[in-house]
Each structure stands twice: as structure tokens, then as C-alpha cells.
UniProtKB/TrEMBL annotation:
Residues 216-233 have a biased composition (Polar residues). It comes from Rhynchospora breviuscula. Residues 212-236 are annotated as: Disordered. The lineage of its organism: Eukaryota, Viridiplantae, Streptophyta, Embryophyta, Tracheophyta. It is found in: Nucleus. Residues 9-61, 62-112 form the Myb-like domain. One of its GO terms (molecular function) is DNA binding. PROSITE patterns: HTH_MYB (PS51294), MYB_LIKE (PS50090). Residues 9-61, 62-116 form the HTH myb-type domain. It comes from the Eukaryota. GO terms for cellular component: nucleus. This is Uncharacterized protein. Keywords: DNA-binding, Nucleus, Repeat, Transcription, Transcription regulation. GO terms for biological process: response to auxin. Its main location: nucleus.
Amino acid sequence: MGRPPCCDKGGVKKGPWTPEEDLMLVSYIQEHGPGNWRAVPSNTGLMRCSKSCRLRWTNYLRPGIKRGSFTEQEEKLIIHLQALLGNRWAAIASYLPERTDNDIKNYWNTHLKKKLTKAQDGTERSSNHHRSMIKGQWERRLQTDIHTAKQALRDALSFDEEKPLPNEDLHPILFKPNHALPSSSTNNVVYASSTENISRLLQGWMRSKPDKTRACSDSGSSQGSVLCESVSSGEEGKPLSWLETWLFEESTGQDQEMTLDGLQLPLDYPTEFL
DNA sequence: AAGGCGGGCAACCGCGAGGTA
DNA sequence: ATACCTCGCGGTTGCCCGCCT
């Protein structure tokens, strides 16, 4: 028996979300919290399917999302994690609490993949040089990159520290009924700023909810941050994975010399470096 | 100025996993 | 045990915008 598509019913709106819809969704989540997405459309009056609501919340409205271009550290961290984890964007996103899996996926597909392809072309042209690269050189190179990745992680972790919200009026667009809102995503800047305002509005609300699990999942993937998960696991005596361990070592001030010994690289790790 | 083209990104689709009755 | 429901994930699509000719 085939399963009907979730949004098979008629009258379900598709396409870009309007600020009004965003506001409806945010208001509902402020009151009930994220989850039970099935009930969201009927309870809010939104003509959207539950998946669309969840996606909108996860990717754009949830607090703590950083928009805009990726930093070099984030870029390197993504490249490393992609090499280690493959296209498991949710897992990768859990190490970049301010980025969504969709964002990372898009960034990978539009920027990093090309960048790496280009780099690989250069690599192939100078393959003789790379083939002769001895393991020690590669280790040093990896260590440098690992250090950069760890730095990025520390930066990401500092996100958890209380950051005072600017004193500016946070929601000039949302709560000015006659404000000229863009009819489409044409004016992305204006629209994004209204979305950002919603998120920032919600930050206070999220902080008032001390629930650890939610705090983690809301700052990472929807399944919860691997990092948060492992930290709490570690506290409870369960071992951290090696990746989580080395990512965390330096961030907790226990930096140690790192070598490839004991590291299990993924099968698809660039062999020219080995 | 206008049309074509490609890049970037938001949103959708389909599948699988986990939970539950 | 199993059928159904809900959710999350990854791949893909389609729209919009800026650049180029």
C-alpha cells in the first residue's frame, strides 16, 4: 500500500513564506513549543503542510541561526566533517550550531564542491608532488587544519554564551502593519531581516526554557546536536567518539599533540594524502 | 535596453526510521 | 506482529537576481 504524500490534500499552500505566515508560526511555537508538527497547520490556520512548517522553523525561524556568508573556519570545518561523515548534513550541522543542515548543504553544493574540484584539478596536475608527500608532511598539514577546525568549534561554542541583545528595536517590520513588505523573496535583505528579528525575539523565550535537550536541539540539528549529546553522554560516563573527543579536547583546555595514530580515516578520504 | 544564462538559495519531495495503537 | 502515523534527512527542483553579451 503506497503512502500518500504528506501534502497531497488540496488547499495546501506552497512556495515562499510570507512574513505574516512566519508570524503565525512563531506565535504558535512561542506558546506551544516546537514539535507536534501535524497539529500546527490546523491550530494556526496556516494553509501549509506540517513538513513545510517544520522546515520553515528549523531552517529560518528558530533562534540562534546565523545568516550570511560562511567564515573560513566554518568552511574548513565543513570540508573536514564532510570528508569524515560524508553527506550527513544534519550531523555536520550539529558541529556548527549556528548553521542549518540546509544551509550547509547548499553551501557545499554551490561553493565548496566547486572549490574542491578546482583544488583537485590542481592536485592532479601536480600529482607527482603529492604522491611524494610523505606521511609526516600530511600529518602536519592535517594538524594545522585540525587546529583551524577546533578554533571554529570554539567560536561556535562561544555562541552558547549569553550575548546581550542589542538595544535597538528588534521588530520594526513585523509589528508595523502598514510596513511595505516585499511581495516575494525579491528583496531578500528586508525579508531576511524580518526573519532574523523573529529569531532574535525568540532567543529570550528559548533562554527562559532551561530544558537541556531542547537547548541542544535548537542550536543544532533537529535531532539534537551531536556535540550536546556527546557532552552530556560524557558527563554520564559514556565515552565520547574519537571525533567528538578531539574536537572537544582543545575547547575544554586539554589540548594535546594530535597524530594520525589511532585515527580511523573514512574510506573515501583523499588517498593522495596517504 | 533587453534577452540569455548561470549561480545561489528557499522550498519541496520521497524515503527511511522510530513510535504507537 | 504489523499497519499506520509522524518526523527527520538528503536529494532535487524551481524561482529570483545579477552578470554578460
